[in-house]
Amino acid sequence: MSTERKRRLSAVAVWLLAAGLGLAPFSARAATWNSRITGSALQCRVRTADRPLTDAKGKNMTVVYLENLACEKIGQNPVETDVQWLLEEGYQVVEVDYAGHPAAKSPGINMDIIAINDALNSGSFAGAVNCSDHRSYILFEGYRLARDIAYFKDDPSVYNYPGGYTDGDSLYMDIAYPANASRPLPAVISFSYSNSWHGNEHRRLFLGYTLAMFDDSFLEGAPAVGMAWAMADHPKYCDWGNGKPVGGANKDYASFEVNPDAARKVKSAVRTLRAKGAGLGLSGLIGVYGFSRGSDAGSMAVGDKYVADFEQAGLHQDVSSSVQVAALGSGVFDFTEIYSENTSGDERLETLCPKAWGELRTNRDKWEYQSSVYLVDTKASAPVLFFYNHSDAQYYQHQIQRFQRRLTAKGIEQGELTDYASGHAVPQDTVSLAKMYRFFGRYLHPEDTVGYPSALSLPARTESSAAVPFDLRVISSTRNEITCTFSLSASAKVEFSAHDITGHLLLSRQVALSAGSQSLKLSRDARSWPQGVYLLRLTAPGGTQVQRFIIR
């Protein structure tokens, strides 16, 4: 029997099965699409819901569903079950059958993701027409979509634009997750490069200014390496070129967002993903990916400094807002540095920032408060992979160098990926994408990652780590023991506990110590430490301090 005849009989069998189970036999038609990575025409099936979902412009919300891939299928439902679910939700679904082709895996699959998004942005793909350019998605087999998850209620008084916007809308995110997962997965979150605003809601996946404009495939390609993903509304809930401070003029906030508003939203988004992900088969390990204005936003999640103004707002305040790793492209990370380069690119900030915060020389604290570098307080901050091209604007490179110096001073691991393309661009080639996914995998795929990370719930904390005078540091870590240093202002009985990043308690010790500088070796009694990311917690009179460390 020919392969084509088998495929047709299989389609008939699926239709009969759906009818026998009482499932609606949605209309379907066959099509083909030329894949970049297989070099051949792939069989597709375009299926339309009886009651189709449409965006605000009446265009079809579309899911391109990639099937029979060469990477692990984490969601354990039959493909037809998940496709049927998407149809019942109202999506126009385009099934793309890779027939097990060996190229249908990371990072090669990203080349096809780029091509698919380019087609969706033009309004059609593989026979599917009238596709939404900002409410369409690419999902891997086994995945479903949790759409429009509220993560923060906007304060319309921050940007004061448009004038009739006074009640405050919710900001949202979309989460692509494995249904009936074989194991808990980490997730990558990104903040849109495109702004949503009152009257133009849900623009976070507007392809004309996000994934298609930059041929950005990192997020939607993450399932091929065992990661779920989420895209959140950009924190500046206002058309990017507008924004009116109280008492100011419109466009005074044209090129940036401000704190505490932006940091509150970023922190709440991470907490929401972690909390919601607990019911979606996610592990609680989170990486953040950002480029351009999305990098400005995502960078606010990197640091470990506790600022009550940032943390005590938004949703799920009993859950940690920490991330385990980040990849950041060109962005602005320290506003106090915008005068340091006499090159083009940041003149607009040099004009607008003093309008918002006063002159730098007399208001430095306020300027620092706006910057993500300000939040990098200890080694517990997340490791960062920076990616940029030297042909991009010079001031972006200066901003990255400033962030790198801060991370280096705190002993935080970094990576760098440069000159993979030209100008203001993201990595698209397979070598660069593989490097980025490997960097994330080091921190998001530690061994024994199971369950929801209860240890990531927030302990009582003080306004700044400076108020906890232990100066806890892990100076060496092996599979057999870790060595830490710290200091005590007075003799005390202290308690140490170590957890893996998912919250499992691995070690607990109590010891009485005298005042002064201390060095202590801690080992597990039963077995060696597995490779992974860990948290060491020191509790003593005066507070608690947590230090992050890695064992390879």
**Radius of gyration over alpha carbons?**
24 Å
Q: Just give the CATH class of the largest domain.
A: Alpha Beta
How much β-strand is present in the residues? Answer: 25-35%
Unreliable stretches covering 5 or more consecutive residues: 2-24, 447-468
- Which class do the helix and strand fractions yield? alpha/beta
Strand order of the largest sheet: 6-7-9-8-10-11-12-13
User: Do you know the CATH topology of the largest domain?
Assistant: Rossmann fold
| Number of helices, where a helix is a run of at least 4 consecutive DSSP H or I residues | 10
Largest sheet: 8 strands, mixed
Report mean pLDDT, rounded to a whole number: 88
Number of strands: 20
Portion of residues within helices: 10-25%
Q: CATH homologous superfamily of the largest domain - what is it?
A: Alpha/Beta hydrolase fold, catalytic domain
CATH architecture verdict of the largest domain: 3-Layer(aba) Sandwich
Compact description:
21% of the residues lie in helices and 26% in strands. The protein is an alpha/beta fold.
Description:
- The protein has 552 residues and is of the alpha/beta class.
- It has three domains: 120 residues, no CATH class; 304 residues, Alpha/Beta hydrolase fold, catalytic domain (Rossmann fold, 3-Layer(aba) Sandwich); 87 residues, Immunoglobulin-like (Sandwich).
- It contains ten helices and 20 strands.
- β19 and β20 form a beta hairpin.
- The longest helix has 18 residues.
- The chain is globular.
Key structural traits:
552 residues; alpha/beta; Rossmann fold; Immunoglobulin-like; 3 domains; 8-stranded mixed sheet; 5-stranded mixed sheet; 20 strands; 26% strand; disordered N terminus
